[in-house]
Automatic annotation (TrEMBL):
This is Thymidylate kinase. InterPro entries: P-loop_NTPase (IPR027417), Thymidylate_kin-like_dom (IPR039430), Thymidylate_kin_CS (IPR018095), Thymidylate_kinase (IPR018094). NCBIfam families: DTMP_kinase (TIGR00041). GO terms for biological process: dTDP biosynthetic process; dTTP biosynthetic process; dUDP biosynthetic process. Keywords: ATP-binding, Kinase, Nucleotide biosynthesis, Nucleotide-binding, Transferase. Signal peptide: none annotated. ATP binds at G10, G11, E12, G13, A14, G15, K16, T17. SUPFAM superfamilies: P-loop containing nucleoside triphosphate hydrolases. CDD domains: TMPK. Its EC number is 2.7.4.9.
Amino acid sequence: MPGRFIVLEGGEGAGKTGAIAFLAAELTARGHRVVPTREPGGTPEGKALRALLLSENGLDWAPDAELLLMNADRVQHLERVVRPALQAGAIVISDRYAGSTIAYQGAGRGLGVERVIDLHREIQHDFWPDLTIVLDIPPEVGLARSRARLAGGGIDEGRFEGLDLDFHRRVRQSFLAQAAHMGRHAAVIDATLPPDAVQAAALAAVLRVLG
């Protein structure tokens, strides 16, 4: 496709939202058309699913149901947002993609990484980003950041923040393992660094992909 698909991944509180806003502004200033988006929630249907999936006081989904709902969101996202933007030559920057499903449902929930990947190959036709940036942060640090953000903003999206530390440690290790497997298609950045250092490293990684 003419465009480029960039994804930011990482555990709770890693700073993906701020990094995406910075990247979008920098790339736009350099003359690129940029489409920031997120999963779940990049489409109207996805926003409805996001509320169902992330609400701390919401519904108690079984792991298999959670996996399928994440993929339902992704089907809509790819069909309605990502592919059309890439076909038009835009740079799509997504807050989460399949790597989060591999980490959270595959590793964290224990459904199995291969099972999640097989489902991705079947439903999303094995469509992967040009670059995945993993913002790596110890769960203890990230969870404290995320819980403070949610409480400060009155945001009811703390369902995963409520899970135990071992879950989030499995998620972190999955992200790092995925990045190692992807080689040049991935960049790992220490998200405990100051935000400007994290954002500069993310921009450098994107510019390498853009050539």
